[in-house]
Each structure stands twice: as C-alpha cells, then as structure tokens.
Specification:
4-stranded antiparallel beta sheet, elongated, alpha+beta
Length: about 90
C-alpha cells in the first residue's frame, strides 16, 4: 500500500521558516520517500505505507518538540498506478 501525507505546522512566519517547520521538512526529506514536495504553505510526501507512517510519527514528535503549536495533516491511500501525486492520483 502507498500513502500520501499532506501537512503544515504552525505558527506561521512568512519572513523566516520557524524551527518546527525546518524540523518537519528535514524529517520527510530524510525519510527515503518516493515523492516529497516542500512549500511555504504546505508539504506533501508519498511512499510505501510503513515509511510514510514512520515519517508521520517522527514529524509529529519532532516538530512539536521544536515549538509547533499545531500540526495539520491528511493521509490518503494512493490508488495503484497513481504514484506521483497531484489531482490525477485523487481520482
């Protein structure tokens, strides 16, 4: 099974990425996932279910420890043959 996680951490700072956001991004970029897209207002990562779930656990624990006051996330099962994300994978 493949999963896609979308997440944001708060509080936001438009001038400089807060420590909790940097930590969360480091977790997903270092998690050996297949597709990672990091942006200023949201992040997505996709991969094998166990790797995604392990990364979600780490990103929650580490970003909260780094000062996040809120972590919003959504996890979706990626249909077979729809790797790579985007709207096509949602259909």
């Amino acid at each position: 099974m493949r999963l896609r996680v979308e997440f944001t951490t708060e509080p936001f700072d438009l001038d400089e990425a807060p420590d909790h956001a940097v930590v969360a991004r480091e977790v997903v970029t270092g998690a050996e996932l297949d597709a990672v897209d990091v942006g200023p207002f949201g992040n997505t990562a996709e991969g094998e279910a166990e790797r995604v779930l392990t990364a979600v656990d780490a990103l929650l624990r580490q970003s909260l420890a780094a000062g996040a006051t809120r972590v919003s996330l959504q996890v979706n099962v990626v249909p077979d043959g729809a790797a790579g994300g985007g709207e096509e994978a949602e259909r």
